[in-house]
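user: can you give me the structure for this one chain? tokens are fine.
assistant: on it. calling the predictor now.
[tool input]
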Amino acid sequence: MVRYKISIGAIFKCETPFLLEWIEYHRIIGVEHFFLYCDDDDPIEAKTLLQPYVDTGIVTWELWHTFKKKIIQQVPVYDDMLKKYGHLTEWLAIIDIDEFILLLEDKSLSEFLINYEQNHIGGIGIHSVHYGSSDLIERPELQIEGFVRRSKTIFKRTRTYKSIIRPDKVRKTYSSHLFAYKKNFIAVNELLKPMPSYNCVRDRTGKKLWKPKEKDISCLKIRINHYILRCFNDFWQFKAKRRHQGQIHAETNNTYKEYWEVHNYNNITDTTIHKYIPKLRERLKNAHSGIVE
């Protein structure tokens, strides 16, 4: 039985300081429920933080430990999520904790989704713009306020996309970006054009296309603000640490130094998401006091 119009599903590791801003922001734009899988080595801090949301029915909590390190965890997690909870929500956005869905025309996700409730649509692909560090060393009070410089809207890395799926139309997860849809269902972009998916788009030779061409990228109605690095200190304390035990230091890890340099996009100043800051501050004030409504 469907309980929610729109929910978000995510797996997280080393993301506890960022959870409340991410949850309350998405509640502002109309997300009703969150299916969150925690992969922390010690989940107590995250569980304690989220308990008020669990108690009020806003968050469903699952503990998911990464026993097989070489396996990409998103695939089994999202398959598990669809099996256990897919029947509870009409639409499910599959995104990460450093990704914020930004509506550019509509006031709510429910309003946006009205145009995509056609019988053949199994999911909607949403492209991202990638925000760099904005040269910040320390963490700003709000991510969406502090990180204001981003990549160009259209370039090769924005060809990947995340999805808002209709769980009952999905057959299998292939990655956090890619789903196989049931027969007669496809993924589309915001302009209702077919998106590459496991069983959707092929080129003239019949070869499957996994990413759209740059000319087909569209971020006019909706996009994801991807805070891919955050500030310098948080990058090394959290993002770089996820796949390693202990603290990772910039001066001793060339792989992550290169990752930082490649992804530190600061091309364009863009504060479009700032329209949500006043309401977000108000909601976070209550959330930090343990008041969840």
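assistant: here you go. The two ends are 24 Å apart (CA to CA). Residues 4-287 form a domain with the Spore Coat Polysaccharide Biosynthesis Protein SpsA; Chain A fold (CATH 3.90.550).
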